[in-house]
Amino acid sequence: MKYRNQILNICILLLVINFTSCIHEKVTQKIIAKINIENTREPISKYIYGMFLENLGNEDVGNIVDDGLWAELLDDRKFFYAVDDKDELIPINRKEKINQWKPVGYSKDILMDSLDSYVGKHSPKIMLNSKKETGILQSGIAVKATKNYTGRIILKGTPNVDVTVSFIFGDDSEDRETITFKNVSPDYTKYDFSFNSKKENPDATLKITAKGEGSFKIGAVSLMPADNIDGFRPDVLALLKDLNSGIYRWGGNFISGYDWRDGVGNPDKRAPRYEYAWKCLEDNDVGTEEMIRFAELINVELSMTVNTGFGDAFSAAQWVEYVNGSTETPMGKLREKNGHAEPYNIKLWCVGNESYGWWQLGTKFL
Question: Please, what are the domains in the chain?
């Protein structure tokens, strides 16, 4: 038995050596391939390679608004949340990061006015204290050195109130730029501003304050890099365009609770909403017109998704009419009123997103 096992082992070893030699011989052989370029077939469809876009997400899911495509630097720019000293947000916000507006001066001097709001449920009203600077600020804004930034603010105030907007990009006294709007209008009015950051800082601050007597209100604020292209970052647009995708589908989990009417018209007048699918704030800055323009900028075909969660067939049909209908139709007239007379001619539409999933609002399978 002992000699038989030895003979068997020797045979196995010889087989392994022979097999390895054969493999080596085959590997070292040249492989010659010939391609007949005249033998063509149907082109590969552009729809084979594309992307999928979520408006919102959290720490686990990338999205347009928070992950660098949209250029807005301010969070909650239309004041969905109250301006106060509390760190807890109610309702909860599951975004990976959200910068909150905080009081400058006494928090009791900041009121959330629901009777005369500019947009949404309320707007901050700042009661001035003649002895000290009073207003609001937002920190945690990432800025680049030597880069220009542009913004706008919607203000109204009592007579003789001068509102100062300060851009603070460092710890030294000279690391700031300011602009003062004298005697702001008694009606909500848009004021434009621009700044230049002399330093790179991941924690810059925008501060809005006044001194003296009376009060002023803030309807909305925006701050973007000056080189943005219709609200989008040019560097990210260039990267996406280089991917040469054929199609992008717009409409993920958020679409199951989305009302398209919230995302058309003047962005400053689009009310912020609580987005229940992702449990976070939806500013409604990136809506129908923005997404169609985005697709044009990177040269892809856009596929839009209608809401089959909490939505209905009538709302979906109205959205299609808004996008593609003539100005003789009710929704086409609304599109014309919003600045675009010609139909957008979006050809591809999806009916809902993952309607089978428990994570979708209005899921059909629970």
Answer: 46-70+230-351 (3.20.20.80), 101-225 (2.60.120.260)
